[in-house]
Predict the structure.
Amino acid sequence: MSGTYLGMPAFPKAAKASTKNERLRANLTRATHTIRDKRAAAVGELDDWAQLRQAGKEIKDNTLARLDHYLLQAEAAVQAAGGTVHWAVDAAEANRIVADLVHAKGEREVVKVKSMATQEIGLNEALAAEGITAYETDLAELIVQLGDDLPSHILVPAIHRGRGEIRDIFTEAMGRWGRPAPDGLTDNPADLAEAARLHLREKFLRAKVAVSGANFLIAETGTLVVVESEGNGRMCLTLPETLISVVGIEKVIPTWRDLEVFLQLLPRSSTAERMNPYTSTWTGTTDRDGPQEFHLVLLDNGRTATLADEVGRQALRCIRCSACLNVCPVYERAGGHAYGSPYPGPIGAILTPQLRGLQSEVDASLPYASTLCGACYEVCPVAIDIPEVLVHLREQVAEQGAGHRVERAAMKAATWLLDHPAALTAAERAATRTRALHPRRLPLPGPAKAWSDTRDLPALPAESFRDWWKKNRKDGSR
């Protein structure tokens, strides 16, 4: 496997390796710039984009403020429509629920709609441990699965792969998973898509159980919504006899009218389309039409703890559009695998540490995986102030003693100095009087030398501001 979440090194170590991969950087630069330019054009067509963005933010905030009410409303509506609702406090419980449901049907395979929630909980691996094979049906997810890889982007999981690599993966691995790739397969996108279509068709027609996530859960009717571009979702959501949907509790919205706002925000922000090609909705079960058994697994897995944080909870507004990834200079150079999470990029840097906690080295490093340039906030369709949350999480990292030792010592010394005016005045005078002896750059050792070699120390004035003030404002005038 070319990437791993469990036991992954902290972001600085992972990024140090990934930024040296020239092919990766070229693939990411080309893809992210193409998507961001198209998105800007699509958004620019709407004169009321700012108002839509504010509406999306307010709908999400109001829903989160009464999340318990809307979840219970959704549960009742799903049950009234013939579905069954399960509550999962964490990944282990969610995985157990899904595995038990598949076993109860006597099946050993499932087809899957692209789902960030199931990536988050490691469902495929958990099912494999139970003797159940999960087949990814999204084209990019299929590439990742056949390549024994991990997703590196929320919208385009195989963004780090080039066409030649994809052809080689299909040629080498498709036969082990089902129908082999055609002889003489080229790297032409149409040929690659046709190979995937033929490979997946037999799975769609054979599978008795499907697993999905959902982009939205409408509380008033218990309706779930999946938006996608390929039609694989529609096949999974309609053909199998049993459908299991694993959905984060933050995906609930109150009404169909609220959905109207998000179906304008999401496609333009994600795929730069005015409307996504496939919008699938389902409400419970219907006799002789679609799945005859429906199960909804409502997933917490750290979301309740995130909701309790007044600053950090805004991460739960996220509608998984990936716009923040496509404008982030750090993601563009480091790639998604460096984040050590199914959620890469700026949103991953604030969501993952809250869902998993800041105890591990990986999670404590993520709030620092940013330049705080603010580009992510500018493009977010629900106005998540990602830089604000990053700084908030950095404070928490520092408070638990996980920050850099030298930085902590410097901050402690600065705090003492600023709390003692006489000592501060003496230090300022000593600094100005010895300024001729100051080096142009800090003589830092080891890896820090690369930082100091490109940064000059600021030149000190001949006198401090305090001394200047006393000399020129003796009467105390302002």
The beta strands are 84-88, 109-112, 133-136, 209-212, 216-218, 223-228, 242-248, 252-253, 278-282, 293-299.
